[in-house]
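Per-residue structure
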Amino acid sequence: MRNLLLQYCLFLLFACSIPTAQENKEVSPSINSITDYSLIVLGTIQDGGSPHMGCKKDCCKDLFENPDVSRQVVSLGLIDNKNNKRYLFEATPDLTRQVKRLMHFGGKKMAEVPDGIFLTHAHIGHYAGLMFLGKEAMNANKVPVYAMPRMVNYLESNGPWGQLVTNGNIFLQKLSPNESFALSGELLVTPFLVPHRDEYSETVGYKISGPNKSALFIPDIDKWEKWEKDIIAEIKKVDYAFLDATFFSGKEINNRDISLIPHPFIIESLKKFGDLPEEEKNKIIFIHFNHTNPVIDLNSSETEEVLNNGFGVARIGEVFEL
């Protein structure tokens, strides 16, 4: 009897030490070391998530029963270890998990909310996570939320977002295009307007600058040719460029009018950036993948094509020094 009991206890101990399949695929390991200032990829997927509501295609069919928790909506975290601060870019529907990872990344136990949240625009994947700061969830206290004037007005004037303001869950701070906002003496964030479907707010990208390196973050934009700025010139000014890669090509969307969602296709970006020198190509990290985008699968031929051409595909958990 004792032997059976001992074997049973050893079995339980061993079983508990084995990570489940879901845990094994939660995140890719960080590929760079953490420094005083770093960016961390917290999500890579387009607003609707993966699996996507109503999707009957092969890209989603197995994920409803066996979700891949690494498929979180697009977000970057900004780590300021020098001043023990953490900032978030975008408030996604996956905010709860993303904030937890950000605030505890690198073994540092921080407060349970970021020191500030920067929003790009009023589409659901980029601001809807603010709801978790409200009284039905965390009931946070004056979390700074940085946004452009139309976005601020939209949040103040429409429920349930206005309730976050009146209850003191968030504290809205207006940004101005092309004006840098200093988070510390060595960290600057600069918003810039980009063309997109601006039903309720402007749309911006961000330049995030540290003491040594800088990054572009443009998760949503219409075709590159519609922007008044030259994307190639902007890439040359930074060390990393996280760029909208919603669709690999138009072929993957066969049930909607693709002209109404005019993101740059990856195949178009590969052609546009194809003549850049290798060191410029290496700066580009594609992000914001629709659930249909085959590059979500890191083993796909499409991902191989992107990588073989010298570009990057964002992976959750990656860290980039600033």
